[in-house]
Amino acid sequence: AAGVIQSPRHLIKEKRETATLKCYPIPRHDTVYWYQQGPGQDPQFLISFYEKMQSDKGSIPDRFSAQQFSDYHSELNMSSLELGDSALYFCASHRRGASNEQFFGPGTRLTVL
Amino acid sequence: DQQVKQNSPSLSVQEGRISILNCDYTNSMFDYFLWYKKYPAEGPTFLISISSIKDKNEDGRFTVFLNKSAKHLSLHIVPSQPGDSAVYFCAASGSGGYQKVTFGTGTKLQVIP
What we know:
- The structure holds two protein chains of two kinds.
- In chain A, 0% of the residues lie in helices and 50% in strands.
- Chain A is built from no helices and eleven strands.
- In chain A, a hairpin with a 2-residue loop joins strand 5 and strand 6 (53-57).
- By secondary structure, chain B is mostly beta strands.
- The termini of chain B are far apart.
- The relative contact order of chain B is 0.34.
């Protein structure tokens, strides 16, 4: 079965650079969530989209922005990167009304040097 | 403010015995609870869930118990197998077709052969 796809899997950037993370949800899933997991921490919710509209916002810095496109894929844009942004970024997808389970992608490991 | 707590960061169990992972939550608006299993460098994998209208849900070797009055849930794995060794996250969400998931801090389970 198709799963959530995230690209790239690994990304190395320098301070003050920008990064774009991509997420391709499971086909027919209409909701995408972004989570950030720092070293030794639990995943923290950043932002979610339903039918291309932002549906909820968590602890996402103002330097970050995200959107969901017409094909339901989503991109997380991160600017003015800081060392503390180094983390695993997970995308999860979900089909509204089908169930409450979110299906997670393998994550993008971002390292900021 | 940690709304979902897993007080045991680690647990070691002999193969064939029962593993019991515990989770407490503080937000009474949560009414859907999930357990995710996570291996290093992979995304969380959905394991089992329970709605607040139930107090027990079983799926093979995995059973989740919910005590709403105590705001406590637990995951039982019987019998435990070495392949169960992973980090287990308790998670909670509110009702509705789309809700962000709030994760606990995780419990690292080691099943000893």
